[in-house]
Structure formats: structure tokens, C-alpha cells
């Protein structure tokens, strides 16, 4: 058992329970080393995240301009915001409300879903994996498989009573959006828009629903450490700012809350598919002392055992195959035995050139 993890002598606690107990300091096991704290070591970036209006998708004369915007954003930041994306604001608001109601439940109800097995289809927890984390992160979460909804929804929380309906409506709308986004991203790479269409349709959707309670000493802790996501796309809904991304100069910039917008982040699968033309975005989550922050991340990837490799159309003598093939299961196996603060999964896939 790593230092800072829970054991049989240490009662299980969560960031939310520390918040409810009105803790006036951050317990030692949440305090980051000086070099990892959010306000040290790096200059603020002047980069802002592009906002892309997806209504242009349905106007043939505007589509090529949209593809160019997508290509530029993927190359420059690995992320962008989308508006007019087709998901009604009430559906998004309902999902955030369902999240808040779940995390407000007494711990004894939530703990029934607790697991430290990263392969479980529904998993409630705190930090990243509180049993093995050397330093804990100021975050509670519930993760659940979500596509197709009918296959998984009976495993989702039954309390609060509206959770399954509200979260289900949002996840189904999100799956439709990510398929459309993948088509335009493939097109921006010069591939057929339907490249891997069936694999994307049958792929995995994991909803990671996060609560970052108000933190008494936010300068000492993080909600999530710097990392990139394993999948093809992550589509994020946030209740207030807190997400930060790293630019090409290794400086952090904050992502604002834009009403009605969703944040799209490229993951490791897209970096590999694009043979490195696009890079997965490194991001982290800061916390604040004023209020709770909720976020819902839809992590989309190919199916659990489907291997991802560079598109053959993007490999030639000038652009050799730069990545080994991998699957979602390979990633889960990796995080079961590695500290993501110290080792990025994508780096294990890069070939020596």
C-alpha cells in the first residue's frame, strides 16, 4: 500500500466529506510537492481556446471553412470549444443537476458503488485511485460505461431517482455529437469522413462525472494532475472554470466557462490515428476555495479490444509509422500499474525513428 493510500486502520474519506466537515486546511496526504503545485514554475499563457460554431456543418458553402478551423485548432491546441452543437441547454443543465444531486448523497449511499478496479463498468471513488495514489487529488467521481445506454443504464446509480433519465438523455445526445465531430476531424486530416465509422459507432463511451469541492488551501492541491486522455475524443461539460491546458511552450492556460459550449479535447487514440499530425492535449484541474465545481467528461474511444494504429493514408517515406498499435484495454492495464503523474501512456507507444 502506497503512502497516502487508505488501509484498514484509516477510515475511508473523500474530498466531498472533508468539505462537508468544514475542514480549514488540506490534510497532508493531499498536499502536492512544491514543483507540482498549481501556482509555481510556469508563466501564464496568452493562448485562448477557439470557439467553433458547428452550425456551419449544415451549410455546404461554409463547411470547408469549418474544416480549416478544426484543423487549425487540432494542430495548435489539441482542443476547442463548440457551440450550436445540437444538444439543448436544458439537457446539459439537467445532467449537471443530476451530478450535483448524486454527490450530495450521504457517503454510505455512494460507497455502495465504490471500486478501485479500473475495469469495473461503474465505479465511484475519490482522487484517481485512492488505494494506490501516493498523493490524493481533491476530487470525487463516478464513472460508468454508457454506450449503448440500454446495455449499461441499469447499473448506474438508482439514487437520486432522476439520475438515469437525465444522464441518459445527455449521454445519448453526446454520442451523436462525437460521431459528427469525428467525421469532420477525419476530413480535416485528409481522410474519408467515414474512416473507421463502424468502429466509432460501436466504440466505448465512458462518462466520468466529477465533483471538485471547495478547497480551503487550493494553492497546495489539484483536482486532477497533468495528463492526457486515452481515447479519441473527450467532450467536457463544466459548471464553472477550473480546467487548464498546456500549450506548446509548456505554459498553462485556463479554459473559461462559455454558456452552452462544450469543450472538445483530442486524446491519445487520435494522436496515434493521425500519426502524430495532431497531439493529445495535456490538461489538469485546479480547485478553488469558493464553491464546488462539477464536470461531466464523455470519454469516447474505439471498443475495449480494438487496436488503434496510424491511418495507412498518413504513413509514407516522409512520415513513417511513428506509433505502436494499442487498445483501450492496454491503457487500463497500464494505469493499473503506473502513476500517471510520472509516466504518460502515449510515450510508451512512440517508435524510435
What does this structure look like?
This protein has helices spanning 15-20, 60-76, 89-103, 107-110, 149-152, 163-188, 197-201, 268-273, 328-337; strands spanning 51-53, 79-83, 122-126, 140-145, 204-212, 224-227, 233-238, 243-246, 252-254, 262-266, 283-285, 293-301. It has 353 residues and is of the alpha+beta class. An eight-stranded mixed sheet has the order 1-2-10-7-12-5-4-3. A four-stranded antiparallel sheet has the order 6-11-8-9, with no helix packed on it. Strand 1, helix 2 and strand 2 (79-83) form a beta-alpha-beta unit. Helix 2 crosses helix 6 and helix 3 packs across helix 6. The chain starts with 14 loop residues before the first helix and ends in a 16-residue tail after the last helix. Residues 1-10 have low confidence and may be disordered.
> What does the overall shape look like?
globular
Total number of β-strand segments? 12
What integer is the average pLDDT?
Answer: 90
**Number of contiguous helices:** 9
Strand order of the largest sheet: 1-2-10-7-12-5-4-3
Let me know the largest β-sheet: 8 strands, mixed
> From the helix content, strand content and strand pairing, which structural class follows?
alpha+beta
Q: Report the C-alpha radius of gyration, rounded.
A: 20 Å
Distance between the termini: 38 Å
- One letter per element, helices H and strands E, the order comes to HEHEHHEEHHHEEEEEEHEEH
Which oligomeric form is depicted?
single chain
What ranges have pLDDT less than 50 throughout 5 or more consecutive residues? 1-10
Beta content comes to: 15-25%
As a percent range, the share of helical residues equals 25-40%
Amino acid at each position: 500500500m502506497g503512502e497516502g493510500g487508505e488501509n484498514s486502520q484509516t477510515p475511508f474519506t473523500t474530498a466531498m466529506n472533508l468539505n462537508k466537515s468544514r475542514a480549514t486546511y488540506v490534510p497532508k496526504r493531499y498536499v502536492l510537492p512544491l514543483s507540482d503545485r498549481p501556482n509555481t514554475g510556469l508563466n501564464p499563457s496568452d493562448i485562448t481556446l477557439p470557439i467553433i460554431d458547428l452550425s456551419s456543418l449544415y451549410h455546404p458553402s461554409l463547411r470547408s471553412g469549418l474544416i480549416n478551423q478544426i484543423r487549425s485548432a487540432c494542430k495548435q491546441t489539441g482542443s476547442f470549444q463548440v457551440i450550436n452543437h445540437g444538444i439543448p441547454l436544458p439537457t446539459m443543465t439537467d445532467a449537471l443537476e443530476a451530478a450535483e444531486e448524486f454527490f450530495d448523497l450521504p457517503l454510505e449511499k455512494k460507497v455502495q458503488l465504490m471500486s478501485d478496479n479500473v475495469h469495473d463498468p461503474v465505479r465511484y471513488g475519490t482522487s484517481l485511485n485512492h488505494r494506490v495514489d501516493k498523493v490524493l487529488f481533491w476530487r470525487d467521481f463516478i464513472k460508468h460505461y454508457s454506450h449503448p445506454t440500454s446495455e449499461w443504464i441499469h447499473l448506474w446509480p438508482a439514487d437520486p431517482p432522476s439520475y438515469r433519465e437525465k444522464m441518459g438523455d445527455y449521454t445519448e445526445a453526446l454520442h451523436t455529437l462525437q460521431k459528427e465531430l469525428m467525421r469532420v476531424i477525419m476530413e480535416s486530416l485528409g481522410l474519408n469522413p467515414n474512416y473507421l465509422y463502424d468502429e466509432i459507432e460501436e466504440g466505448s463511451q465512458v462518462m466520468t462525472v466529477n465533483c471538485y469541492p471547495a478547497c480551503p488551501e487550493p494553492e497546495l492541491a489539484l483536482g486532477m494532475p497533468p495528463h492526457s486522455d486515452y481515447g479519441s475524443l473527450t467532450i467536457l461539460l463544466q459548471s464553472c472554470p477550473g480546467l487548464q491546458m498546456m500549450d506548446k511552450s509548456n505554459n498553462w492556460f485556463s479554459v473559461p466557462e462559455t454558456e452552452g459550449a462544450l469543450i472538445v479535447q483530442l486524446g491519445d487514440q487520435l494522436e496515434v490515428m493521425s500519426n502524430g499530425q495532431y497531439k493529445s492535449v495535456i490538461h489538469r484541474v485546479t480547485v478553488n476555495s469558493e464553491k464546488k465545481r462539477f464536470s461531466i467528461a464523455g470519454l469516447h474511444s474505439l471498443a475495449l479490444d480494438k487496436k488503434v494504429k496510424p491511418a495507412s493514408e498518413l504513413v509514407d517515406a516522409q512520415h513513417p509509422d511513428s506509433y505502436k498499435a494499442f487498445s483501450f484495454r492496454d491503457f487500463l492495464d497500464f494505469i493499473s500499474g503506473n502513476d500517471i503523474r510520472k509516466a504518460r501512456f502515449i510515450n510508451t507507444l512512440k517508435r524510435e525513428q
